[in-house]
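Quarterly update, task 2.4: S-adenosyl-L-homocysteine-bound model.
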Amino acid sequence: MKRDDILDWLHEEDGRRLGGLWRWADTVRGDNVGEAVHLRGLIEISNYCIRQCGYCGLRFGNHELERYRMNEEEIMACVGEAEAYGYGTVVLQSGEDYGIEAKWFESLIGRIKKETRLAVTLSLGERPDEDLETWRKAGADRYLLRFETSDNDLYRLIHPSLPGRKSNRLAILKTLKKLGYETGSGIMIGIPGQTYASLTQDLHLFQRLDLDMVGVGPYIPHSQTPLGQGKWKRMISKRDQVPNTEQMTYKVIALTRIVCPEANIPSTTALDTINREQGRELGLRRGANVVMPNLTPPPYRTQYEIYPSKGGMTEVSPDCHSLLNHRIHSIGRRVGTGRGDRVHRGRTTSPFNGMDLSFSDFIGKNKNYKLRGSKIFGLLL
Ligand code: SAH
C-alpha cells in the first residue's frame, strides 16, 4: 500500500468507507491466517524496571509502585495453567529487570521447553545480545519488542537511553531475526506529539521489517509518568496530533493486517481496556487473530500497571476461559490449536495479500465481499 493511501485511511471518517476497510482487513486476515484465534497466555513475571520511559507506569522513577519478581515455581504454576487451558504459547513479559539473571532465566526456559510443548515468547526489553542468544539457544521461540514510534525525535523524548547505551530497538530487532527468533514489534497509537505522518511511516516500517508479529494499541496516560502529567511535551499542531481513540486503533489494526498479511496480530489488552464490552471482538473482526489472556496471579497483575485500569476481558479463571471461547465462536471464528507460528504463504498465493493492492483492486477482485460481509458481520455494517 502506498504511503498516501495509508495517510488517507488514517484521516478517513466516513462510516461506509471505514466499513469497507474493516471488510478488506478481515478478508486479508481470513485468506492469510484463517479463522483460528490463537491464545497466548501472558505471564507478567516482574515489574522491576531500570528504564525511565515517559509513558510507562513501571518506570524506575515511579516510587508509588510496589515491586515484585515471580520465582520459578510461581511462573511454572502459570505455565501449567496455560497448558491446562490448551494454549499453544506462553508470553513471559517484564520491565527491563536485570534481577532476572540471564543464567537463571536460561534454565527456566529450558524447563518449560522440557516439561511442556508450549512455544515460549519473551518480552523483557532491551537485553544485551548475549542474553538474547543464550535464551534462544535454551529454546525460546519468539521475542516481542515494540519500537513504539518510528519518529526519532519523539522516541528519544519518551524513551530515554540508559547512560552509555543508546537505545536502538531496530538494531535489536535485526539481531533477534538473525538469532532465529520469530520477531514481533509494534507501536502505541496517539502518543502526545505523534503525527499522522509518523504513524504512516510506522505502518510502512512494519511492512519493510517483514515482522512475524505486530502489536498495536492506544496510548493510555498514566498519572505517575511525565508524559501522563504533560511534563514532557513536544509541540505539534492540534491538526497533526493522532488521537488515542478506539476508532484510530481499529484503523491501525486493519492497515497493519493489509500491509503485513501473514503476521500474527493481537487484539490487545489496551484496546480491551478502552472498550471492555466489545474492544477485543472488534479488533478480531478488523484484522487481528490473536488474544493474550492474562495468567498473572491477581496480586501481581494489579502491580503490573504499565497504564491504569489495565485488563477487562483478559481476566482468566475457568469461567472467563469458557466465556472467551464462547465469544470467539460467536463471531464465527474458532480457537486455534497448536503453537500458532507465523505462516509463510508467500506473496503470490493469495489474491488479497494486500501488499500491492489498492482498495478499488480489492473490491474488483472480490465482487461478493458485500454479501460475505453482511452475512457474517451484519451487525457491524
Ligand atoms: N519492558 C518491555 C515490556 C514493556 S510493556 C519492553 O519495554 O519491551 C509492553 C508494551 O506496553 C510496551 O512496549 C508499550 O508499547 C506498552 N505500553 C507501555 N506503557 C503504555 C501506556 N501508558 N499506554 C499504552 N501502552 C503502553
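Highlight for this quarter: Residues 348-355, 368-381 have pLDDT under 50 and may be disordered.
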